[in-house]
Give the backbone structure.
Amino acid sequence: MAAENTSVLLARRPSGAPVPEDFSLATEPLRKPVDGQLLLKNHFISLDAGFRNWMDEDSGDEVLPAMPLGEPVMGLVLGEVIDSRHPDFTAGTWLMARLAWQEYSITDATDFLIRLPEPLEAEPAAYLGLLGDTGLSAYFGLRDIGRPAAGETVLVSAAAGAVGSVAGQIAKIMGARAVGITSGAVKSQKIVSELGYDAAVDRTGDVQAELLAACPNGIDVYFDNVGGPLLELVIDQLNEGGRVVLCGAVSTYGAEQPGPKNLFQLVTKQASMAGFLTHTRAEEYPEARSQLARWLEEGKIVAPEYRLEGIESVPQAFSDLFAGRNFGKTIVAL
Amino acid sequence: MAAENTSVLLARRPSGAPVPEDFSLATEPLRKPVDGQLLLKNHFISLDAGFRNWMDEDSGDEVLPAMPLGEPVMGLVLGEVIDSRHPDFTAGTWLMARLAWQEYSITDATDFLIRLPEPLEAEPAAYLGLLGDTGLSAYFGLRDIGRPAAGETVLVSAAAGAVGSVAGQIAKIMGARAVGITSGAVKSQKIVSELGYDAAVDRTGDVQAELLAACPNGIDVYFDNVGGPLLELVIDQLNEGGRVVLCGAVSTYGAEQPGPKNLFQLVTKQASMAGFLTHTRAEEYPEARSQLARWLEEGKIVAPEYRLEGIESVPQAFSDLFAGRNFGKTIVAL
């Protein structure tokens, strides 16, 4: 067992999009678990934009307190129990947990923990992406809120991201036409060729015109991963009975933006908008994960990954997420 | 039969809230219906804020074209067939119809028409208020979107208005705590004493503080009749799983306002927001109306009216609606 444990600390509060300088590294001797605790060797760290939320000073809520400066950053990790002094866990168990960005974690198991199924249905890293919170967000958001009918148009923002890359593929499996919004020509082309989107809208272009061209029959479902001004353009092109799935809102983290001026169209179009969180549905995880794992095995879905290596890469990986450098789920392998 | 027919014309396009000078009167000889038409003697004109929507130059949509200048204003009337040359209608039938503000209407029955039940379950004017589009909006909005559970807090804006005055009472029947937002001390007191609201919030006061005081357990359902900046304050106090019913949006008619900056809270609170229109549910009218008529008969609900007299009062009555001078449903008896 390693004698040291390196952590990523919150060095200063990000202003808008995080940059690597907002974080620092610290190495300490590795503690041993005491009675009631377990020691986790983290193999992967998941980078999720949502955690940016709790980096602001007055950001605490019922999910997490505001992250303190100089302390390890809270996030989502995937690790293996290597020493357990807790009656419910034995060495060798894989856990996904809301724990800090560290090489090793010690927890009393009262944190948010999800046990990976035994045997694993896919390689462990898949449980952070396709079979993790982001893939499940795409799945629950479309199944419960978007509910696309065959032939309907599903528009996905941040279509190359962890959630969007899965949402577009599930929309296709459900028989819908999938249109993705992403940034730049390269990603626009890749979401069509690698993820099967029917059309791409480049956010760096004339979005309104591109949306009209890509969605000639209007928009039935908008799976929104970004929030902000884009939503207003989409509402203008929403069909009667349209559904907006609010899944995170990357662009509003750290900067309050004016909301859409055209919300009254939700009345005239009898449309709806709903937000949801995946972590409140832990009891539905096994079934949803099995469905996604089956699609993966059958080749109906791919699980692209933007993977960096080593704890020292975490600040860069998290910043890359906000700069849109990732294609698929962003993880760091330790 | 009268030989003349007076109409209310759109004299100029309102700028923001309509004023009486936006309208003019014109009197013409009364025509006779030809084959396939019927002649309606209008007994009541319903004043509904939603029609303000189509008074702007570029406002046409699938419901109505933009109203032309110098022509009779489209609205909702309640009248009796007095001469029919249409096979499906006989004299004596009461109809609620989307027809212009006139003393008499001639229609080929392809317009939006609702037959009143025979025998009538209440006095005819009730079919414009409690048993009409506004009462049904309150009913459908709470039953299908708000869905308050017993003990939950339902907040209603424009609580003294045609829809709000019914919504608060239905919320109470459903076992919820009803809190109404209205303007001024007089209406604040009246919505409690006459409509049974548990508490009132005065829009002309410190709304945020009054909301906190009136909704100590947060807000579970917001029945929004006004749109605009109020929505942002309400989202801040919305509970986990809260529902926002978007029913009209008086304050946004004629002036695009910035939307709420805190829509991301719909994600963290797993809340939803949905708009709806009543006129697309014509087949559900009879059952809904019977329920409301039963409550009226049993004394469980009251149907307050702000009633003016004579076609020449219509411009004033419509303007009063936007100035908040009404208490309950605004109608003009002809």
